[in-house]
Amino acid sequence: MAHSQDKVDATAVFVKPAHFDEWEKTDLWTSAKNIPGVKLRVDENGVEAERFQSDTSGQVALYSPDGKLLFNGGITGSRGHFGDNDGLTAIEALLAGNNPTKTNTPVFGCRLIKAPAKTNAEEFCDANDDN
Predict the structure, then answer these.
(1) What is the C-alpha to C-alpha distance for residues 128 and 5, in angstroms, rounded to an integer?
(2) Do 108 and 74 meet the contact criterion of CB atoms below 8 Å apart?
(3) What are 46-96's pLDDT values in tens digits?
């Protein structure tokens, strides 16, 4: 974001499952809050996540000003990875006005919403090998 503030309107959305108080107020929330130009939103019970067909934390979607989806996927090479990867390269290319080689990349993270019977926080971030 430091290099793209004037090119993008960024919002980090934190899903808050039902039956969890202060779910979104984590270290990640604090980190995102400290990124200049990023707005934070709470998505109560994953309504927005469902609308945008996002089921894994870390999913990034980039839309053009006219609402066209330009990129959808992850911007890390693996869970917890920092540094260069195909997703980040694609976003940077798009923001520079170039055509990326990829517009979809795998997302590595935790499942956002599970069946309503699940109430234990750890159950939301399992191995999630199917993503």
Answers:
(1) 32
(2) yes
(3) 899 999 889 888 899 999 999 999 999 988 765 665 667 889 899 999 999
